[in-house]
Input
Amino acid sequence: SEVRGNQKEIIGMSNVSNPACLAAIVASATALLASSPVLATGPLDSELVSISHNESREGRNVNHQILKTGMHKGMRAGGWFGLMPLTVKNVISRSSRLRMKYGYLLGLSAMEIRSRLDRNRVMDKEIALYHWTELRKKFSPRRAAYAWFHGSGKAQKVSEQEAANDQYVRSFYSYWSNSLKKHYEPAKNSQY
Output
């Protein structure tokens, strides 16, 4: 593939003269950008962008609140997607691929997991995407958003209407429909 001058400037490699080398650098930079949590490349990713907007304003505020009740009492979420450390451990334990890449997280404290999520956006997105995909296999987008915030057990007990009326879900849907829906069709089995 041909590399244009503006691509050289974008990646700061205007002094690279070997076209094959430059093409490889551009391909690597493109792959890195594609792994960014803010770049939606498909329907599930666009839904995840809405989650990251709800949770951290797309990474602008990853200082999540400490929870005062429930199974996550005394913990705070981490990363752009607001993943709770116990949820991270649960998700990793269900995926052999994630276990191979991130199994070391299973032995870390909640604070260490949160810190890793805050620093490693690729890991944050991979775990979030797996979790979101699993929720979307079971639930509509609105109920999946409800499950993301309140847990799967609670999502199974609420009606579609109750989920749609939840403040977190309304914010998720509003952001998705106003900012992203025009660029992407809803994911398969979507009930938007």
In short: The two ends are 39 Å apart (CA to CA). Residues 1-15, 32-40 have pLDDT under 50 and may be disordered. The first helix runs from residue 5 to 10.
